[in-house]
Amino acid sequence: MIRLGIDTGGTFTDLLRLDERGIKVHKVRSTPDDPSQAIFSGIAELITPAESAEIIHGSTVATNALLERKGARAALVTTKGFEDVLKIGRQTRAQLYNFMVQSRRPLISEGLTFGVVERMNADGSTLEPLLESEIKALIDTLHTKTIDSVAVCLLHSYANPIHEERLSSALEDAGFIVSTSHKVLPEYREFERWSTTVVNAYVTPLMARYLTSLEDGLNKNSLSIMQSNGGSISAARAKTAAVQTILSGPAAGVVGAHAIGNASGYSKLITFDMGGTSTDVSLINEKIGTTMESTVGDFPVRLPVLDIHTVGAGGGSIAYIDSGGSLRVGPRSAGADPGPACYGKGTELTVTDANLLLGRLDPEYFLGGRMALNLDRPREVAKQLAKQLGLSVIALAEGIVRIANTNMENAIRVVSVQRGHDPRDFALLAFGGAGGLHACDIADLLDIKTVLIPEHSGVLSALGMLLADVTKDYSLTILRPTAQITEDELQLQFKPLVDQAITDIQSEGFAKDDIVIERDLDMRYKGQAYEITVPFKSGYEAEFNRQHQQLYGYSDPLRATEIVHLRVKSVGRTRKPTLPTPAVNPRELPTPSSMRATRFARKPIPTPVYHRELLAAGMQGQGPALIVSGQSTTIIPPHFDLAIDGVGTLIATRQRPHKQSQRT
Question: What is the pTM (predicted TM-score) of this model?
Answer without folding.
Answer: 0.87
